[in-house]
Amino acid sequence: MKPTNVNRIFLAISIVMIASSIVTYVEQVEDIASPRSVIHDKHFIAVMNNISAQAPADSVLVVSTNAPFVTYFTGHIAKVPFGVTSKKALVDYMRRNHYDYLVVFEGRSQVTELKSLFSPKGVQSLAEDFQCIGSYQTDFSKILLYKIKDST
User: What DSSP character marks residue 114?
Assistant: First the structure.
């Protein structure tokens, strides 16, 4: 290959990387700045306070989405279960890591494979492995707090 061809390949790769970064950035800004985002939800902080009061201070919260907001307003570490693709895998992930609490923003998930599990119909199937200990309605979300059942 001639040096000019290598330069063109690197230039093309750079342009693709910049374009994908811009698209991702715009999507994130639109989500955060949307009039229906959690930052505009008048009841969100109160719900996070309730969730914080129900989960022990040292517990990690597994969340369907909005981990940074949940962490900030509850004081708990919040983790989105990236790489988890099913209810069984979610239960295994939580048990393996000793995570007891699951916060579901009904109908929303950052993990594409879990969107159906966290849908209004899908959350019904969580009753087999989780106990619902809180259900909260905010301006734009229904937020459910679950505690994983003992494996015995």
Answer: G
